[in-house]
Amino acid sequence: MAIYLDHAATTPMRPELVDGYLAQLQVVGNPSSVHGSGQKARRAVEDARDRLAKALDCHRSEVLFTSGGTESNNLAIKGLYLQRNSEDAKRTIVITAGTEHHAGIDPVEWLESAEGAEAVWAPVDQHGVVDLAWLEVFIAENSDSIALISLMWVNNETGLITPITQVASIAAKHGIPVHSDAVAAFGHVPISFKNSGLATMAISGHKFGAPVGVGALIVARDAKLAIVSHGGGQERGIRSGTLSSPLAYALGEAAALAEAELEEVASRLEAFKQQIVESVLDCAPNAIFTRGSNPGFSGIVHFTFPGCSGDSLLFLLDTAGVSVSTGSACRAGVAQASHVVMAMGRNENEARGALRISLGYTTTQSDVDAFIKAFPTAYAGALKAGLPSK
Length: 390
Hints:
By secondary structure, the protein is an alpha/beta fold.
């Protein structure tokens, strides 16, 4: 059986919610129907909304069910931009960073090509840390032209934590809304939407133990979004479409479980992270722990290996029965140099040497031991193979 260390791509469904999820699958009824069967399905959805709101520390009306992080990011980024631009045509700037997930970058680039938006890429240092001093000055000098800011709470490749409440506080002085992709954050680091100052926030269930295919967009009650998904008007009119009561149930249960054990799991993963970092650097002293000493989620351990291909490392570790990744699994399975690493000022060869080991609530000491045992042989083989020629 493979040792699974790719939890940032997807994590196993929590066994505690399987029976309830299967039971919900047997419930017949559209949550929008007014008859008894429909209202039974509606109760499951609303109970899940309550659980999710409690875990997120937000009002229940702010929780909108979606299919996952990508849809949530699209609804928020496009909706905020189009609303703000319609109110004032001078508001064309979207501030984001090159280290964002493609689910955050691609909607911004679409707005550039289709709606005349201007993407402004916030500078980041060699560890991916956004320059908040630059951000404050840029906002002060261009506040009338900024539509929104979009930055991740936790980077999905490196685990770096962005001080998102500071970003929101800077923006709030000028009335600028901030969206955050919190897909890699929720269920793993403490989050209070109420205290974040955010206008919108995206989460995805399969990152913390719910099934694939369900997530949420959290929209502050005073936030205004243009509607970009048209249909039945569900979810405050922002996300039309028939709601799945089984998926909503599973999302609410998984969120409650993840939040209840967050501190215990975080402590365990921090110990595992330290073991992995020490063993890797002992074997490969030239390796770079990407986020350095900056705050990060312990479940994501990311390195670059000079003169070595991350793809080779992945293949050799996979052959040894250990599943890891070279970065995001959301680019249709296409192997390519990490755009996140390149945005930090590294060259393409350095970016091709990236490897991500990601841990989750099911990770055990024996899993970590298996990686530590397999890594030296895999590294030696990848180093011998070198970098692929272009």
